[in-house]
Specification:
- Helix content is about 70%, strand content about 0%.
- The longest helix is centred in the C-terminal third of the chain and has 18 residues.
- With about 575 residues, it is mostly helical.
Length: about 575
């Protein structure tokens, strides 16, 4: 059109960029805008509204906000659509506080009146962010200004309180809606049933189904799916199956989600024969199994150690024309590794790439574990090095931890230390599992000093060790008569706030610092993390005034923190 010398008016231009911006293709729209600007066609407010929407759809909400500010500077008066578009984009991108600011701006500076969409967007934004109290406070202000909450408002609040774990308040909101003349419909019931089911209150959710039927509101299969999913998560898969049967009897046909939920539930309980029966049943109801169905079955077979059956099932999946995803391949990979078919496992990685799928850290983690579990650490290390080059895969802390843990288990600590330092150099800070693996390896070789130094280094870098890890170091230090170092760890824990919750209830800094070390040691013994001999050594050390005069390992924080405690940080042993 431009090539023919024909220049579109701004209305035509707006029609051209509208579908582009709706898809988030702002860059292409800008190119087109620059071309028409050169020919003397100037944008109007609708043009800017389209661009703001496009930027928001692309997640570029800061740029969208800047554009609105520019609109005002260029002499345009943003309208309700402009502000609503930006407010919606901000809330969708978790910037609800900024959205609230622009709402006040549209009222105070623009003289515009917010509508139901404006208010509901911000209420939902606060609820989605877990700031449900802010949502209530905002709503109270909005209703004072004349806003009448509708179905959408109440759904947002119910969802917000359910996510917050306050089911009682969610029920109050639900009842409040009815009292204010808003007839409860399927959407409101869905919100409450979802919240109840997710919190394990399935009996209350079932009662709600009976209640909604009495109110003349017919439940749909989505509501049944919510409760079936809740029952399966609680382990009541047979009850979930019975509920599906009840739904079928009254005319509701289960969908793929219903069947997949049941199949996954039975597979997790290793009731694989029943899971296969459900697969046969879904086919008879005209619902075809998908990749999620087969992934559940494969995972169940793998967890039941039926690895050969899992491999055969995978072959039948391909024969049925179902395209596997990376999860499918990861499950199969684990099965191949478990039956020591490592060559086939390596070949499978090539197949994954040939199918256009991208192997992830689970893929390579499973492969590395497979080699290690089969006693081939050299093979594992060879794969570890090759995957970066051959598959352009960047190792993660998880893959480093696998190799470090196995080298430590096999007491090849030179390699473990090499990888420990390498992962830090590559930007992966060692975590709980890394330090635990290293410390356990040193302790097994009798190298208590290195274990002690690694523990101190970890704590100084913010690592919160498990009680089991600390207990092992304390036991070995006491056995080697390194009482000063052992007692020093206890005091370092106190200074860093790695203490039982009870310590934080002691008023007065002096009293806390005196009582805390004894409480820490007693807690170790009570939980079985130290021997009675270590307990006696540590207890004596804490009371030893000569020992206390020595300088223990120090870190910057001189007080007991109330943020870190054994009650909060429970690392796996």
């Amino acid at each position: 059109m431009l090539g023919l010398g024909l220049f579109p008016c701004i209305t035509t231009y707006n029609k051209l960029i509208h579908p582009l911006c709706r898809k988030g293709d702002v860059q292409e729209s800008e190119k087109l805008l620059n071309k028409v600007l050169k020919r003397g066609v100037y944008p109007n407010l609708f043009t800017f509204n389209i661009f703001i929407r496009g930027l928001c759809n692309k997640g570029m909400v800061n740029e969208a906000a800047s554009l609105l500010d520019r609109v005002k500077k260029d002499g345009f008066a943003p309208d309700l659509v402009t502000y609503n578009t930006l407010i919606y984009g901000l809330c969708k991108n978790s910037k609800v506080v900024l959205a609230d600011f622009y709402l006040r701006q549209m009222v105070n500076e623009g003289g515009l009146e917010p509508d139901a969409f404006t208010y509901n967007t911000i209420v939902n934004g606060y609820c989605t962010m877990g700031m449900v109290q802010n949502a209530e406070k905002f709503l109270k202000s909005a209703t004072f200004k004349g806003f009448i909450p509708d179905q959408y408002t109440y759904c947002s609040l119910i969802n917000g309180f359910c996510q917050d774990g306050d089911i009682d308040r969610a029920m109050e909101i639900f009842n409040d809606a009815s009292q204010k003349g808003l007839k409860a419909d399927i959407v409101l019931y869905n919100s409450l049933v979802k919240g109840l089911s997710q919190k394990g209150l399935v009996l209350q959710a079932l009662n709600l189904i009976h209640e909604m039927t009495k109110d003349g509101c017919t439940p749909n299969i989505w509501i049944y799916n919510l409760i079936i999913n809740g029952l399966c998560k609680m382990g009541y898969v047979d009850d979930a199956n019975n509920l599906m049967n009840d739904a079928i009897l009254i005319g509701y046909l289960p969908d793929i989600f219903t069947f997949n939920t049941l199949i996954d539930g039975y597979c997790k309980k290793l009731k694989l024969d029943t899971a296969i029966e459900v697969v046969d049943r879904m086919t008879s109801h005209g619902v075809n199994p998908d990749v999620i169905t087969y992934n559940s079955l494969l995972n169940g077979l793998c967890k039941a150690s039926k690895y050969n059956e899992a491999i055969e099932t995978f072959k039948s999946v391909l024969e049925k024309g179902c395209a596997p995803n990376i999860i499918t391949y990861n499950i199969l990979l684990e099965s191949l590794c478990k039956v020591k078919r490592l060559k086939e496992a390596l070949d499978l990685i090539v197949e994954v790439e040939s199918k256009g799928l991208k192997p992830d850290d689970v893929t390579f983690g499973t492969l590395l574990n497979g080699f290690c579990e089969n006693g081939d650490l050299d093979g594992a290390y060879n794969v570890f090095r090759k995957v970066e080059k051959n598959y352009k895969f960047s190792h993660t802390a998880a893959t480093y931890n696998i190799m470090i843990t196995w080298f430590s288990k096999k007491l090849i600590l030179i390699m473990a230390e090499k990888l420990f330092h390498e992962m830090a150099e590559k930007g992966f800070p060692p975590d709980t599992y890394t330090y635990r693996g290293m410390i356990d390896g040193f302790l097994k070789t009798g190298n208590v000093d290195s274990a002690y130094n690694f523990l101190l280094d970890g704590i100084e870098k913010g690592f919160i060790p498990s009680l089991v890890t600390i207990g092992r170091v304390l036991n070995c230090l006491c056995a080697k008569h390194k009482n000063f170092e052992a007692v020093g760890i206890v005091y370092l824990m106190v200074r860093q706030g790695i203490v039982p919750e009870i310590v934080n209830t002691i008023f007065g800094t002096d009293k806390r610092e005196k009582a805390a070390p004894k409480i820490v040691v007693e807690d170790f013994l009570k939980k079985g993390h130290i021997t009675y001999y270590a307990y006696e050594v540590l207890n004596d050390g804490i009371r030893d005034k000569k020992l206390l005069k020595k300088t223990f390992p120090k870190k910057s924080s001189p007080h007991i923190s109330t943020k870190k405690s054994f009650g909060v940080h429970k690392s796996k042993s």
